[in-house]
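From the pipeline queue, job 12 of 40. The input is one protein chain; the requested action is below.

Action: predict structure.
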Amino acid sequence: MTKIYKYGIAITDCQTIQLPVGATILCAQMQDSHLCLWADVDTLKETEDRVILVYGTGHETRDIPQRYISTVQDREFVWHVCERL
């Protein structure tokens, strides 16, 4: 059985978070001034490291395989959230 869980993430270039193996990242959005990521997870599975990248508009992106997740507006800032593959 899977459930949708929320994970707080930092507004930083690169971070590693723990998600259950095979989790599907759905989106990222601001909630109460915090950047959050939602994923469809099987809570009975072991966890694995997933690398999340956050870019500001106009910032240099990394030349690595990555999957776009969401663009998030945070007052005057706009963040682009991706997952490293």
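Job complete. The chain has one domain: 3-84.
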